[in-house]
């Protein structure tokens, strides 16, 4: 293993230990998705509603299935955003010392971003496992990929919040923003969505999860805007992180 690889591994393992020493974060990552999804799929009424599925047009589906297609990306975005916030808040001082000790900024950045991916994977995995007791998406691979990319995108936005606002304000921001984005603006039960919905990070990922939830064939070109949002969020977060290290 190269020297940079060893530095990345050491920094990543330090971040995992930091996760383990933060019970609130562990509870959010593992317990909140299971609780939230479990409550919804067991309390929703057994009724059917018409929705618009991007790849199939108008369909009438069960209420639990509609919200299931939204809950997994929502939990990914919510947990990813909070994880990114906590990663940045806990890493700012430590990473500055590691940088002085000779750990390169690329290794530090890669390790921190990988921690966000791990949190997103855990949130999406737990949410999907609980959802599977009531509803399984038709096209599972694009469903999971879209949910995971949204989780990482909000995780990167969470790192920005950790650099710009206080801990409390950042937590509120990362709780409210994904909820408004995914659950309200992107709701497929709304016929005439607000124009702002198309500009939000959750627009294309939730279009894919709704499509994949009820159709076996998904238009993969929808991942272009999804990855573009990820690239923009990653670029801005990286620049802000480097600036924080220099100061």
TrEMBL record:
* Protein source organism: Halorhabdus utahensis (strain DSM 12940 / JCM 11049 / AX-2)
Query: Membrane-spanning residues where?
Result: 24-44, 64-89, 109-134, 140-164, 171-190, 223-242
Keyword terms, alphabetized: Membrane, Transmembrane, Transmembrane helix
Q: What name does UniProt use for this protein?
A: ABC-2 type transporter
